Description:
Keywords: Membrane, Transmembrane, Transmembrane helix. The two termini are 30 Å apart. The protein has 1 helix and 14 strands, in the order H-E-E-E-E-E-E-E-E-E-E-E-E-E-E. It is mainly beta. The mean pLDDT is 90. It is 13% helix and 47% strand.
Amino acid sequence: MQxxxxxxxxxxxxxxxxxxxxMSCLVYFLLNEKQNLTAERIDxxxxxxxxxxxxxxxxxxxxxxIDGKTYKRAYAPAGLIFYDKNGDERGGLAITDNAETxxxxxxxxxxxxxxxxxxxxxNKHDNYFRAGLLINDKDLSGKPGHNINRINLxxxxxxxxxxxxxxxxxxxxxxxxxxxxxxxxxxxxxNGNLNWKQ
Length: 198
């Protein structure tokens, strides 16, 4: 019998707990006959007053906090952000809609950067789209926002692929089924040069 890895257990447990919190809130409002709850931001704090969950629109989404320091967010999404007991960001659900693209993502973080992400993107001015799962190694340099992308399971413009990379983010094995239904397996050397294809 195959066992589930610890990172996957943590990911699934967090996903289940966040769904439970959201469903509990929904049931509470329905049972109390509340028709609408309108807010631009909702902070859920612990006893010390630190944020543990923030739900906000694009105007009030907080900037990321890593190791107690605030950084500038690349985009201002609407969404839900999770925090650890120290007040550092540990993941979230982001809905981004700008002039070029729609990008929706669910992420769970290491202490300083994304660990696991699920995304869906489609551009507004061309036919580009992608959706998938990204898994990163922790960057042990400690630089905030840095990680090492190792595994991508994506569909992109009709091409489905599992891409496994080395610790320099160079694809080494690619399992693919293209938009015409043609399967392939590719292997690359440490410089990214194709050395085997089937």
